[in-house]
Amino acid sequence: MDINALLSVPLEAWQAQSAPADDVVISSRVRLARNLTGSRFPYFAEQDELQAVEEKVKGALKALTKEEGEPPTYIGLGGLDGIDTQVLVEKHVVSPQFVAETAHRGLVVNRDASLAMMVNEEDHLRIQCMAGGFQLRSALAHAQAVDDALASELTFAFDDRWGYLTACPTNVGTGMRASLMIHVPALVRTKKIQRLIQNMMKLNFSVRGMYGEGSDIIGNVFQLSNQITLGMSESDIVAALQRVGEELIKEEREAREQLLAAEKDLLEDEIWRSYGVLRYARSMSGKEAMTRLSQVELGRVLGLLPQVPHAAFRELTVLTRPGFLQRYIRRPELPEAERDSWRAVVIRDKLQSYENSYAAHHQSVSK
Asked: Which of 74, 135, 214, 322 is most deeply buried (CB count within 10 A of its CB)?
């Protein structure tokens, strides 16, 4: 994939398409941490050691040709500016920690960005495979295929007793983190989310904001992932998260029905008010945008806003983030007040285009 193509669109094809349970689950991800035998972990390695790891990984990418249809692209972080790396974070292609340093760090990405592999982050390799909606097993199968292919060219640090060796002890074992990005506005509104979060933490799952550890929870979007990797197989970890995900989907859908039954008029009024503010506001902070976009997405899934298309929430969530917004309007240097004004412009234009498409579709159907 060309880096400009990756940075220029808010959503890849797999993110825009309909997927299982995507009214609640935005995306599924499986990440495998791997390190090369005989090389120190990145935090302890010298620059020449990091460069050697980088070259070994680049040389091994040919092994992914069969799995991906073509060798993935290697993108060195040193060639990107601050806005570009911020966009990669906002699109969940890389972690915020990864872009803090750029020397001998790189991103390996396939044609549709469903594979995004970080080189020389906390570990030598962070293999990430993503899928739209509730498709953990699909993401796992993809990650395992990539892992197997790379293992034919690289020797990973592995201990018969402890499993895969990683920079952080909590990742030792499978080296795997499976996660779900979920949107649960009804559970937040009905105040049931805290009980569910407490239950999930008791089951050794972590609940974080949309950008992972240390990030704020905005727009009713949460990231749910496993905490234990040692003593469990990859399939066991995914099966456990699958069960938790199924329960969350059930609870969120039930909460939506309860809201419709108990306070439909109030709920509908709040949703349409948020739509109206987004449609006509002249300034919009990032936090307010996420809050109101979450309400609009709830209105869409409840059938109260038929003019809003399926992927609007996912598209606008990325499009209105600071880095992507500045790249989108081609203003890399932009004061916060101006950025808020431009965010409102972009949202207004998008909502107008959605309305036009909806009207045109219904006009053609009625003929």
From this structure: 135
Alpha-carbon gap, residue 91 to 85, rounded angstroms: 10
The answer to whether 121 touches 102, Cβ cutoff 8 Å, is no
pLDDT tens track for 286-323: 999 999 999 999 999 999 999 999 999 999 999 999 99
**How far is the C-alpha of 347 from the C-alpha of 281, rounded, in Å?**
9
What pLDDT is recorded for position 332? 85
Domain assignment present for 278? yes
Q: What would the pLDDT profile of 70-81 be if each residue is shown by its tens digit?
A: 989 999 999 899
Quote the CA–CA distance of 107 and 119 in Å, as a whole number.
6
Say which amino acid occupies 337.
A
The residue-averaged pLDDT of 202-231 equals: 85
Give the single-character DSSP code of 61: G
Question: 166 exposed, middle or buried (CB, 10 Å; 0-12, 13-18, 19+)?
Answer: buried
Q: What is the rounded CA–CA span in Å between residue 262 and residue 45?
A: 59
- CA distances in angstroms from 265 to 188, 242, 256, 304, 350, listed in the order given: 19, 35, 14, 11, 27
Q: Does 231 score more than 80 pLDDT?
A: yes
Q: pLDDT tens digits, residue range 328-367? A: 999 988 899 999 999 999 999 999 999 999 999 877 776 6
324 Cβ neighbours under 8 A, 6+ residues apart: 10, 86, 87, 90, 91, 318
How many Å apart are CA 340 and CA 329, to the nearest integer?
A: 12
Q: Is residue 330 domain-resident?
A: yes
Look at residue 174 and tell me if it is in a domain.
no
Determine, yes or no, domain membership for 355.
Answer: yes
**81: left (phi > 0), else alpha (psi -120 to 50), else beta?**
beta
Q: Show the tokens assigned to 172.
A: 């030792």
Whose structure tokens read 């936090």?
A: 287
How many domains, in total, are found in the chain?
1
Q: DSSP 3-state assignment of 127?
A: strand
Contact present, 29 and 116 (Cβ < 8 Å)? no
* Average pLDDT taken over every residue of the chain: 94
Domain span including residue 274 = 256-361
Decide: residue 110, CB within 10 A, 0-12 exposed, 13-18 middle, 19+ buried: buried
CA distance 46 to 51: 9
